[in-house]
Amino acid sequence: MKEGVNYLKDARVKPKHYTYTLSQYLNGRAYNFYTQKVSQMEENWSLDEFFQSMFNYCFPSNYCIKMRSKLEKISQSVNQSVIEFVYELEELFNLIDNVLERNKVLKLWNGLHMELQHSLWRDRLHPEVLT
Hints:
By secondary structure, the chain is mainly α. It has helices spanning 2-10, 18-23, 28-38, 47-58, 63-73, 82-96, 101-111, 114-122.
């Protein structure tokens, strides 16, 4: 979505051509959505309606619930670096949206290997006061 919006702005595409322009970069279910639902009256679709409807068409209705469940269970795996774990968390946070910053910090802290958590405590770092 972000790349699409940036492209439309950078290319100075007129709003009535937004959905057609973005359709050139769609494939699979997303392109099927465009051809079946949007293409006949594309100039009537706002960008927000387009993205929201395409998301609902492409993903199961319980997708966000599944992502929240995955977020609840996730922790740093044995061979995973901290950076890789952070990227995985950020991806889930972006998919779920509206996750409070405090909850992000706590999820990171509690998901780290125990040895790392102990080292952080030893260094007098505390998840309730860190950002």
